[in-house]
Structures are given as C-alpha cells and as structure tokens.
Amino acid sequence: MSLAIYAAVGALTGLHASTWGAFKDSPFEGFRLTSFTRSIVLGVVSGLLLNLAGAVRPASGVLVAVGVCYTAERLVTEWWKTILREDFQGAYAIPMRLAVRGRPVDARLPRYAVGAVIVLGFVVAYLVASRLSVHSRQASYSAALLVGLGGWLTAFGGAWKDAPVEGFQLAKFFRSPVVATVWGCVLLAFTTDLPALILSAGGLSVATIETYKTFLAGGPPGKFATKPVRFVPDRARRACRLAHATTYLLLAAGLTATPLHARPGATSAGQAGRELALLAALVWASAVGGLVLRSTNSATVGTSSGSDGLAEPTGSLSDADIHRASR
What is the per-residue DSSP string for 13-78? Predict the structure, then answer.
C-alpha cells in the first residue's frame, strides 16, 4: 500500500478514536478541539511511520493496517495520559494517571521510570514476536491463542486502573481478551506476521468495544461516573455520531476494494478462508456503521448523585434527556 493510503488509514483510525472520546466526555468536559484533533494527528503520524518502517506487509490488506495503526495511536495516547500528562486528577472518578490501589502517583520520577520500563517491554516483546512466524497448521493453532495477547494486556491494565474504584468485574475483565482472540482468528486469513496479528487484533478489539460501550450499550463513562453533567454539546455529539458511523462505512468501502490475491503458497482452502474472513469483516463494518446511525437514543452519559441539583435518572440518556436535565 502507498504512503497516501497509510495516511488515510491513520486519519480514519484517529477519527474513530476522537469521535467516541468526544461523544462520551464532552458532557463533562465540554467539546475540546485540541483533544479531538490529537488522535487524528497521531493516527496520521502512526500510519506514515508504519509505512516507512514496513511494519505491515503489503499483502496483508487494509484491515490489518487499520488494526495496527489503531493500536499505535491508542498506545501513544494512553502512555502519555498515564505517564506524562499533568492534570487535576480530582476531575475524574477513576484516576487517569498511573495509580497504585486507586491513588495517583504524583511524583514524576517513579512515573517516568515505569513509563520507560513499559516502552522497553514493548520493544523487547515486538522483537521476540518478530522472530516467530505462522506457517503450519499447528503454528496457526498456537497463534490463535497468542493473538489475544493485546486483549489480555488491555484487560490487566484496565483492572489495575478501575478495580480499586469500581471493584473487579469478571465479565468486563474477559471481554477484551475474547474479542481480541476472535479478531485474531479472522486476521489469520490475511497475514502470518505474528507482531502484526497481535497488534491488529488488539486495536480492532479496542475499536469494537469502545463503539459498543459508547453508542450502543449506554451508561456513563467510568471515569466520570460520579461527576455532574456540566455541558450540553448536542450539536457536537450529533456530529461525532455521524462521523463515527462514517468511519465504519469508509472501512467497508475500503474492504470492498481490497483485492483478493492469494498469499504465496496458499491452498485453495486458505484462499477460501481469506475470502470468508473479508466478507465477515465487510458485514461487520457495514452493520456497525448502520447501528451507530440508528441508535439515536443510546448515550453514554447520565447525571449522577454528584450533579448540582439534578435528578439522578436510571438507564441511558439521549442528548435530549441531557438537555432537559441540565436546564
């Protein structure tokens, strides 16, 4: 794929992350243009760097590139929030900074040391995984277990951050590993590169789960669960919903245009598996895009007991509900 395609993939992944983030957080923080554009810029930069580094093989296709790019953008953003960002942690119900037993680590030196260890760990893990390949059927079975690694890391990181405040939630803990493993099994049809498989499955897992939590499931975001609704960004949230759905429809269009060239040495069964996996991804992208557009009453925020004089509703709130409650 060309440099321009990677830039487009990066912009698409960044827009996806920006829209669910702004949709969830804007009733509590207001719509922030700098925060919104940050993920888009990071996505484009990630796409360009992945192209220059050759991190995704050209024959892997758009779907693998989207997943790897999404992981790169999320890793950089979450690492920055956890290690480097200096902001008031009292604004959140769950600390966004590195925390131990729910208490933020304010000292910079320990945070920076932990951040350096995390970066070193990822580099070493990537180099080790790069020496492995998935060619035989037995190796494919092993890879099906390894590709969920990104989901396991997400689960452990989320539990470390959330469990001291919310309590340990078993179903929530296993959600990311299960979704990442499913995605990994789909992606096995497109590439035998283990690092790309793990990174792409992890990225697509995050994208899928965040869309579900934000636009389909309802409920307040955990980090603002006890905080009051302070803004009524109806127009911005409608635009975010439309843009988010558009990212899925654009991905579906990109998958439609994906050539179905067989991998070198691929059997007829392997080629059929690739075609089936591409069809499954196409149906997924089209269906989710449509659901996001249709689910106009599924919001992810609600007023809480900490709201200034606002009644505490039950269930999920639509933009209209928030507007009425905030008057």
Answer: HHHHHHHHHHHHHHHHH---HHHHHHHHHHHHHHHHHHHHHT-S-GGG-HHHHHHHHHHHHHHHHH
Helix (H) or strand (E) holding 87: none
| DSSP class per residue in 99-125 | EETTEE---HHHHHHHHHHHHHHHHHH
Residue 303 near residue 310 (C-beta atoms within 8 A): yes
Question: What is the domain partition of the chain in residue ranges?
Answer: 3-325
Q: Average pLDDT for residues 293-320, to the nearest whole number?
A: 46
Contact 43, 17 (CB under 8 A): yes
pLDDT in tens, 156-184: 998 998 888 888 989 889 999 999 999 99
What's the longest Cα–Cα distance across the chain?
Answer: 67
The confidence score (pLDDT) of residue 324 equals: 45
Provide the whole-model pTM: 0.84
